[in-house]
Amino acid sequence: MFYREAGDFKTSYTADSQTFPIKFDRYRYYVVLAVAFGIIPFIINDYWANALLLPFLIYAIAAIGLNVLVGYCGQVSLGTGGFMAVGAYACYKLMTAFPDVSMFIHVILAGGITAFVGVLFGLPSLRIKGFYLAVATLAAQFFLVWLFNRVPWFYNYSASGQINAPERDVFGIIITGPNAPAWATYLFCLIFLTLCAILARNLTRGTMGRKWMAIRDMDIAAEIIGVNPLKAKLTAFAVSSFFVGIAGALFFAVYLGAVEVGEVFGIQKSFLVLFMVIIGGLGSIFGSFAGAAFLVLLPVVLKVVGVDVLGWPTDIVAHLQLVIVGALIIMFLILEPHGLAQLWRVAKEKLRLWPFPH
Amino acid sequence: MLDNSEGYVTEDGRKIGGVVMEMKNITLRFGGVVAIKDISFDIREGEIRAIIGPNGAGKSSMLNVISGFYVPQEGEVWFHGSKRPQMRPFEVAQQGIARTFQNIALFEGMSVLDNVMTGRLSFMKTNMLQQALWKGKAEAEETENREAVEKVIDFLEIQHIRKTPVSRLPYGLKKRVELARALAAEPKLLLLDEPMAGMNVEEKEDMSRFILDVNDEFGTTIALIEHDMGVVMDLSDRVVVMDYGKKIGDGTPDEVRNNQEVIDAYLGVSHD
């Protein structure tokens, strides 16, 4: 009943091209922001932060990044894990080399360094497409993990070969290390997610986004109407890797605190983020959120239902979880290949006419 | 009258200017196949120039040479009085040459509006940082170009499908959206590759009207490939006829229609 465009007249092109053209959507967005920033930090505890909120926020950033590349620009990448590792190690090196600089700057710089590495590994995309490009990015994944494993300079010659996040603060509030309060880590990640989402949305709705989508939909036609394919693809790799690098830095410094690169940033991480993007919806910022929420929430929900409600043994639930998540992914791809975002769009179109379907 | 003048006036009173684009002795080979053999012709400012010929004559290849998609082995392309160096297609586009394709090349995943907006790419000057921040320069640029795009949308009467994803449109409308995208670029030279292929009579009439209107209102120079002889002869000021990669005729529709070689190769004789 409330979900109506009727009466919501646009009188300027600016108003027509805003992110949430429908009033109800706009208000819902403000409410979500208010809850996320104003309420959750006060009621959050360690369990909620570590099991749900932090992974959701961080994966959402990574998914937005990958979505820019795969969903908007159509360049398949299996190197997400490797690029997250670049972000994590860049952040680690910066944290240890410049202990007095704010974490905000470290994380952003880590994103910048990852963007640079992303562009390097994006160069093959100028000649190859599709599966072949996927294989090329796979090479990036294995090479980067190997590099961080084998070159001691990256982990500061520590005996274990791991990297550990030292305690760092922002304006006097500790946000890394074991003593960081849950609300602070949550807010830190939330700020990055909000900024990344807004930046990604602005880029994708304007000229840059149209160039990317033109390359995705028909690269030959794109070139003939004046898109420089080299620039368009490489900027997509840069922007995507920037977000993925930020996600990697946060994943290491704020969420895990200690990282063994092969375990944390292996190929399964690349696939996980890719699944999020596919399940959430290619070419949709909202889809990145939905996909991240789905794949972070699902295992937790299954565990709660299996162990706490039904009282099954933990190991059986853990295995069942894998089976169910896998089955759900397949089901999703068959029933709605355009992901949760498409379901959402269809629901919105129905709601618009509700309760009179014609 | 056509040859050495700085322009001429058509029967219906349109002024045709000097030579905008000149193809000089173009030869294009794919391995052993000679697609275009030593062809020269020119396109004058403000005229509608048709390229006709049987299938496989090299018409589309010719258009691809003009739009920079193929690089001819021999010959020169002169644009606005200077020899054009070898260019990538996107650079050619930035010079003010827009085109449509024989089998529609729209961006299926985008709305009609976004598709037409891509035609404005060469007018977009903001950098990535400004776009990421949106407020300010990028937003102003977007609005400004949206206004220009809305004029084209209005002109081609596709207001009602502005926000529809292109993939949902019927064939005839897609052709029109593709024309809109090319027009949004405000081209100096517009290349149309079979704009009326696969259309019914009514749609052909609409499209013909749009082509004439574009030429009339914006003074756009148009080069088109078309198989419907009725349309070609009615619309165009001058016609190039190709067959097996060679030029076999060039002139006004009347001259071409009475050229024996053209009749033998392509037009045929009526049996009534």
Distinctive features:
heterodimer, A: 358 residues, mainly alpha, two-stranded antiparallel sheet, 2% strand, globular, B: alpha/beta, Rossmann fold, 2 domains, 10 helices
Helices and strands, with pairings:
The complex is a heterodimer of chains A (358) and B (272).
Chain A: H1 13-16, H2 23-43, H3 46-72, H4 80-97, H5 103-122, H6 130-150, E1 163-164, E2 169-170, E3 173-174, H7 182-205, H8 207-217, H9 219-224, H10 229-256, E4 258-259, H11 261-264, H12 267-280, H13 285-309, H14 314-335, H15 339-353
Antiparallel strand pairs in A: 1-4, 2-3
Chain B: E1 8-9, E2 15-16, E3 19-30, E4 33-44, E5 48-52, H1 59-66, E6 74-79, E7 82-83, H2 89-94, E8 97-99, H3 112-118, H4 128-133, H5 137-155, H6 171-184, E9 189-193, H7 201-218, E10 221-225, H8 229-235, E11 238-243, E12 246-251, H9 253-257, H10 260-267
Write a short abstract of this structure.
The complex is a heterodimer of chains A (358) and B (272). With 358 residues, chain A is an all-alpha fold.
State the total count of DSSP E strands of chain A.
4
Tell me about the biggest sheet of chain A? 2 strands, antiparallel
Termini gap of chain A: 15 Å
Oligomer: heterodimer
Q: Could you please describe the fold and organization of this structure?
A:
The complex is a heterodimer of chains A (358) and B (272). Chain A is mainly alpha-helical and 358 residues long. Chain A has a domain at 43-267. Chain A has helices spanning 13-16, 23-43, 46-72, 80-97, 103-122, 130-150, 182-205, 207-217, 219-224, 229-256, 261-264, 267-280, 285-309, 314-335, 339-353, and strands spanning 163-164, 169-170, 173-174, 258-259. In chain A, the strands form 2 sheets. Chain A has a two-stranded antiparallel ribbon. Chain A is globular, with a radius of gyration of 21 Å. The model of chain A has no long low-confidence stretch (mean pLDDT 88). Chain B has 2 domains: 1-96 and 202-272, 3-Layer(aba) Sandwich (Rossmann fold); 99-186, Rossmann fold, CATH 3.40.50. In chain B, helix 5 (137-155) crosses helix 6 (171-184). The model of chain B has no long low-confidence stretch (mean pLDDT 88). The A-B interface holds A 12-14, 16-17, 199, 202-203, 206-208, 210-211, 213-214, 216-218, 220-229, 235, 239, 283 and B 67, 69, 88-90, 92-94, 98-99, 101, 105-110, 114, 117-119, 121-122, 124, 126, 128, 131-134, 138-139, 141-143, 146-147, 150, 181-182, 185.
